[in-house]
Amino acid sequence: MPIHNADIAARFEEIADLLEIQGENPFRIRAYRNGARTLSDLTLDMAELLERDKGIPHLPGIGKDLAAKIKEIVDTGTCAKLEELRKAVPAGVPALLKVPGLGPKRVKLLMAALDIRSPAQLQRAAREGLVREIPGFGELTERHIREALEAQLGQVKRLTLAHASQYAEALVDYLRQLPEVKQAVAAGSYRRAKETVGDLDLLVTTSDPQGVMSAFVAYDEVQKVLSQGETRATVILASGLQVDLRVVPEESFGAALQYFTGSKAHNIAIRRLGQRRGLKINEYGVFKRTRRVAGDSEQSVYAAVGLPYVEPELREDRGEIEAAREGHLPHLITLEDLKGDLHSHSKATDGRNTLMEMAETAREQGLTYLAVTEHSRRLAVTKGFDPARLARQGEEIDRLNTELKDITLLKGIEVDILEDGRLDLPDSTLSSLDLVVGAVHSHLALSRKKQTERLLRAMDHPYFSILAHPTGRLIGEREPCEIDMERVIRAARERGCFLELNAHPERLDLNDIYCKMAKSECVLVSIASDAHSVIDFANLRFAVGQARRGWLEAADVLNTRNLAQLRLLLRATR
DNA sequence: GCCGTTTTCGGCCCGACTGTTTTCAGTCG
User: Fold this and answer.
1) Which of A24, A253, A286, A367 could connect to A362 by a Cys-Cys bridge, CB 3.0–4.6 Å?
2) Which CATH superfamily, name and number, covers A5-153?
3) Is the distance between the Cβ of A272 and the closest atom of strand B smaller than 7 Å?
4) Distance of alpha carbon A504 from its chain centroid, rounded?
5) pLDDT digits (tens, 9 = 90+) for A77-116
């Protein structure tokens, strides 16, 4: 079993949980969690580095001790420290930390007083009314534990960004129409355009906090109010989504928005910068002793610690603070930078609309070209194209292009990459097209070596232009294929072809980390809708969000070029 | 356990809400 960075990160999280239950130094615990986060954000594969005898490079939050543990975990699958901790704490106990309202202190109390060793035992004890008898617990706490354990069975997964946007936009609209509300925005991971959102964080400024709070908990989708104070409330919607609302005075809007946008790691780093300058930063502003020196706007908060404004999508403590300090922040791509779309389908295969309808909608969205890329014959369920049908569509595209104004249809194909890396259509067919988008739709479970070589062979093909949804993942449904993305990206650079960032809300593939990696290797990314109907062009904004999280600028994206420039770049791949 | 533009030792972000207590600990974000 190969050990991936995610596996090492999981071991570190487990160590942190176990140390927490033992009541260890909280900063030591945080060190393990920071190490875990660094590893899961990393593109370098630790196991591979060690295999090639490269040693572990200097990484933020990974010191001598954690580096040694990484090596030990890669070599043995575990580490002595973890095994020692596992022996000291019963196996079901870490799961108790996941129960809302239970932290390490209460878990310890439960173990000591009632010998609770698993969520099941806790559920029984809570039903029998034993929990309330423990000093520090009470009837209400017991009820909350019982309800939380029962609810956990049907626990909601994280929503895709697109799904969350439906709830967020409706709620923000609701709050904005309240007369006492000055500003209302969604902050948190939603504002950072993270691909999935666990809960919504809303921020409101008002002169009447009480009124806003009452209106918020009265929103008709609210099923349960978890907490409600003067400036903060937490509710659960009927859909199961948790929503936190924070209310601050108008002059604190910037500081509060900065704080509630996160990420947590980014905020900690910013506050530490503040500390060094003798400043205290909280959601109400930036303070020098008791004097408020900034906080009206986010810009003012960053300026107070000597930094330029940092875009929300960059705020993950992945190097943005250093880049800001050195004046190297990227000028991030925007939706308006996209000049065209290089992946779409029509009724001819598994799409819903005609070519004309697709073209006109794309044009309405400000696009000036649209590549038609139907599936190839191998994907029979989609009525994929054989050479003859593809040729006939080519004639139709020629005819439409004489009728269409301000937009050009390009002839393409989403050709299946077969198990051995060959393409599903002959060269004579592919050579007649403007671009060839290659995609894997079968044999997703090949070994890392085979899957990687399959992609490399496909990309080596003389007419190959763009690798579509490179990892094949479906968020929350299907894990990415095992691929050595570092090799794929390097191969794309050498070959001169491109990688796609697919805008389908469940794909968003490439992800942010791989986008950044492609950028560092100077491989252009195609931000593509993969539209199967006219409404799918709207998904482009989520892909742009992902691209921004991956530090991409307009120049890093293939389809920010105008048609003439694009044709040159596509021709150069051949 | 990590880290250093005051530091290689002694710090490590900061505040709101709840429940149980009678002034605050625990948890959460």
Assistant:
1) A367
2) DNA polymerase beta, N-terminal domain-like (1.10.150.110)
3) yes
4) 13
5) 899 999 999 999 998 899 999 888 888 999 999 999 999 9
